[in-house]
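FORM 7B: Structural annotation worksheet

SECTION A. Query
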Amino acid sequence: MAPMRADSRGSVVWTVARKELREALRDRQTALTTLVLPLCMYPLLFWVMVQGALVVQGYRESQEVVVGFAGAAPEGALEALGGGPVGAEPEARPDASAGVDPVRLEPLAGTAQEADLRAALEDAGLGLDAALGFGAEGILLLFDGASPHGELAERRVRDRLEDLRVRVRAEALEAAGHDPRVLDRLELETVDLGDAADKGALALATILPLLLATWCFLGAFFPAIDLSAGERERSTLETTRLLPVPRRWVLEGKVLAVASLAILATLANLVAIALSAEGLLRQIDPGGRLLVAFPTVALLAAAPMVALFALFCAALLTAFAGLARNFREAQASLGPLQLVFVLPAMAAILPGVELTPLLALVPVLGVTLAVKSLILGQVLLLEYALTIVGLLVYAAAALSFSVRMMSREGFATASDTIGFGRALRMFRSSRAISR
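SECTION B. Predicted structure
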């Protein structure tokens, strides 16, 4: 057979990558997890989240809490709490018709001391959610913060008594001949000078870089396993040894195919987010305090970084997945590897963590910080250049490691799981597959 020309390497790598891509996308499971699932999952997930939040909020507002009280209540206190006449039927209470945040008051036998209130609250037969003691020096409220109803009772009692306190102070000032409006000088008025678009960009910069890193990793996860451990399980790995081209080129094509699938998965997730984010934003921010615009320019600028990061993920996952003897074992062994990618990406969203020349060279963290800075519109040319250089180095090193590992003779012929020590010896050995 005539020797291959040196300039045909790119053609061979691209041909192998296209072949693997076609076969992967023909597989229903791969196509479903890479393209179909993201486009359907996020709109449905956001809709379920919003509807679930509305249901939970409505349920909390309709739940009645029972508050026991002891001592001489100040004038109007019981009415302010929404209890109406003590002992009245539920339909006779003023808050029963609205059905929002209802409070039922029950008189307690005893004093307003903490010991008596605690005993009453702990008495299971009374069914109290909170105990309220009216004394000469103030009001004491006991509740169980570990109980959902206890937390509801505390919030409702505190808010309604605060409204009563403000009203009583104003009435006392007016009775003493003072203008109640003098209290207005102590009221705090806040003015938010932040632009709605800037706040929307900040919200995107907080979560989108983490999502991009996660999507790249998960997009490469299953294809990497299928093209390494999956082929070993199906006994098709040996067929690549029969191709009349250098094995390194074939393996580079496989890694390129995995990286391409990771990029496709990331794009599909991004499109799904863009389609569903507007409806979700209207639900969680009806006042329009946030204005979220799709960061097209920032994402186009970040595209080379994301592509290199996808190649880095694909190369590492393909090499490590190939150590397992079958698909299931590779899936279980690569699960903990997610932390290596997700934890640095999560660190990028912490307040005060900004892109610096040093952090730009840190794997995973550098690219997430760079995407964050691009979304915020920051011009950091040196840091962006260092991020790209670092990604080039890491992607090349990961690709070299992956190809060197998979080209070992022991890797291709192994019939069982390859342990870490054995993999290290194989990596150091010079016994590669011929050609």
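SECTION C. Observations
Residues 1-6, 84-98 have pLDDT under 50 and may be disordered. The chain has two domains: 14-51+194-428, 64-186.

SECTION D. Sign-off
Analyst initials: ____
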